[in-house]
Write a structure and sequence with these properties.
Oligomer: heterodimer
CATH superfamily of chain A: Cytochrome-c3 Hydrogenase, chain B
Helix content of chain A: 40-55%
Strand order of the largest sheet of chain A: 1-2-3
Number of domains of chain A: 1
Distance between the termini of chain B: 16 Å
Helix content of chain B: 40-55%
Largest sheet of chain B: 5 strands, parallel
Order of helices and strands of chain A: EEEHHHHHEEHHHHHHEEEHHHEE
Order of helices and strands of chain B: HEHEEHEHEHH
Radius of gyration of chain B: 16 Å
Number of helices of chain A: 14
Structural class of chain A: alpha+beta
Distance between the termini of chain A: 41 Å
Number of strands of chain A: 10
Number of strands of chain B: 5
Strand content of chain B: 5-15%
CATH architecture of chain B: 3-Layer(aba) Sandwich
CATH topology of chain B: Rossmann fold
Chain lengths: ~375, ~170
């Protein structure tokens, strides 16, 4: 029997259709239908200046909106062969980690909600609100911040801002372990989470799983290792686990929050003085940049003529993670409830996934090669 | 007497359903933030259930994409009669940044279904969303309930449908 779930369903906060092939209560396999949130952002961005493009890139996804603007700005900085001033880099790292904390807390809260553990769900949202306050204090807005520009950030911070943010982080740190323990040692939660939704290392590699999903399956891969700010100035560790199940993914997020708090404290302690923004002259050219978003790696491929965006392609982590979920995790799951919980641990972000329609007339994927740069570029069916 | 009692009960038990019709999901997570202890949606008697078949308030977040043009009307038709539509954010009002040449959005949402309240912002703050639901929800539901009852007297065929939802 095929059990359709979505696009509007109590378990989902975003539209997506999940088709579960079931026998009795057992889920044999799953199929996922996308396409409800395709807005054509990449097509709108073509032929616009970066000042307009950065606002569109922010609205690719609302939960990890910050990292999209940062990656967009850093792609242009790479085309120009420059980097932002050090203070701006530190402020970007600070906001990125705050954004990661709130995103991970939201992801875990969704998981607990679907497990019907209302208490932890409320606790997660309770912990998240002060972080949203910190983001608002720093950037002026809760979700779509509009804070990054090519060459730096828009607003500087002063000491009182940093003190407040540090206080919020210390507060979170002091009570965070209690909540992690509630999950870690909770017998009921353990039963629902251990050995459910297994994704082995080989499967994770095959499905190109990234972010906490990949790291929980033993792939020690975090793009922050390659980022110049994190590599040169900050001391932190990649969090990864080997137990591959729902428990591992949730705990991986919890541990990453702890690591993010460590980074934030370092940034606030070592924030260098100086400029926050510099003039960057963008030449014509092609550039690629990838950053570690809360859900994995987000890649921007931009071709510009110096003024306007000629071509842009955005690759976001959710599409690989959701596919890994549909193909490997939702295979022989004991109950439908566990299948939905497994889907929630992947932290699906549908708005992220649905910028690209990769089909041609025959309904097959079509690969289009950039004429000058030999970069495989997936062509939009409805594109020009 | 019975009607006024019903009104009181209706006013303090509102079921909300969020339909994300193709935005950046920033508004969706602000609606989720409403559930947090700070805003505590449920102390106002609003239950967030995401099921259109038992919804009193339908929250629309997002510019209408190609897929949603017909589905949105179907979802609106599925909701039982005293129903209120609240459009959250700039996307359902104008399409926000997506409403440009070449994109596949069909904002505003009021072209497809009647909208009772609009909250602008990208995204609006959770408190603003809550204020909008409370401003338009209880009274409109009570008033529309009475209106629907009046209609039933005129058209007895709809009576059975009206009885179901009570």
């Amino acid at each position: 029997m095929i059990l359709p779930i979505g696009p509007v369903h109590p378990a989902l906060k975003e539209p997506l259709r999940l088709k579960l092939k079931t026998r009795g209560e057992k889920v044999l396999e799953a199929e996922i239908d996308y396409g409800y949130v395709h807005r054509g952002i990449e097509r709108v961005m073509k032929g616009k200046t970066w000042q307009k493009g950065i606002y569109l890139s922010e609205r690719v996804c609302g939960i990890c909106s910050y990292i999209h603007t940062q990656t967009f700005a850093e792609t242009f900085e790479k085309i120009a062969g420059e980097t932002a001033p050090l203070r701006a880099q530190f402020l970007r790292a600070l906001t990125n980690e705050l954004d990661r904390i709130q995103s991970h807390l939201l992801a875990n809260s969704t998981y607990f909600k679907i497990l019907e553990h209302e208490t932890l769900f409320m606790y997660m949202l309770y912990l998240r609100e002060p972080i949203m306050d910190a983001i608002e204090l720093l950037t002026g807005n809760r979700v779509n911040m509009g804070w990054n520009v090519v060459g730096g950030v828009k607003m500087d911070v002063n000491q009182s801002h940093l003190d407040s943010i540090l206080k919020i982080i210390l507060n979170l740190e002091s009570e965070f372990d209690r909540y992690v323990e509630m999950f870690d040692h909770g017998p009921l939660l353990g039963l629902r989470s251990h050995d459910v939704g297994k994704l082995t290392r080989e499967e994770a590699i095959k499905a190109r799983a990234v972010g906490p999903v990949g790291r929980a399956s033993g792939l020690k891969h975090d793009l922050r290792e390659q980022h110049h700010t994190y590599k040169d100035h900050l001391d932190w560790n990649v969090i990864w686990r080997k137990d591959m199940d729902n428990y591992a993914r949730t705990m991986n997020r919890f541990d990453e929050i702890t690591e993010s708090m460590k980074i934030i404290k370092q940034v606030i302690e070592n924030l260098p003085p100086g400029e926050i923004r510099k003039q960057i002259n963008i030449p014509a050219g092609y550039g690629e940049w990838a950053n570690e978003a809360p859900r994995g790696e987000v890649t921007y491929m931009v071709e510009t003529n110096g003024n306007l965006i000629k071509n842009i392609s955005i690759r976001t982590p959710s599409i690989m993670n959701i596919d890994a979920c549909a193909k490997y995790m939702l295979k022989d799951v004991a109950t439908v409830a566990d299948a939905i919980a497994t889907y929630a641990t992947v932290d699906p972000c549908i708005a992220c996934t649905e910028r690209v329609v990769i089909v041609d007339e025959a309904g097959k994927g079509q690969e289009y090669v950039y004429p000058d740069y030999n970069i495989p570029y997936l062509k939009d069916k409805t594109g020009d | 007497m019975l009607d006024s009692l019903k009104d009181i009960i209706r006013k303090s038990s509102i079921h909300a359903c969020l339909v994300s019709t193709g935005g950046c999901n920033g508004c969706d997570i602000e609606v989720v933030a409403l559930l947090s202890p700070r805003y505590d949606l449920e102390q106002y008697g609003i239950y967030f259930h995401n099921n259109p078949r038992e919804a009193d308030v339908i929250l629309i977040a997002g510019a209408v994409t190609e897929q949603w043009r017909e589905k949105l009307q179907r979802i609106y038709a599925k909701a039982p009669e005293p129903k209120v539509v609240v459009a959250i954010g700039n996307c359902p009002l104008s399409g926000d940044v997506f409403n440009q040449e070449g994109s596949s959005v069909y904002a505003p949402v009021s072209d497809f279904i009647p909208v009772d309240a609009e909250v602008s912002g990208c995204p609006p703050r959770p408190s603003e969303i809550l204020a909008a639901i409370l401003a338009v929800g209880p009274d409109a539901i009570a008033a529309k309930g009475r209106q629907a009852k009046g209609d039933q007297k005129a058209q007895p065929s709809e009576k059975a449908e009206g009885e179901e939802k009570k």
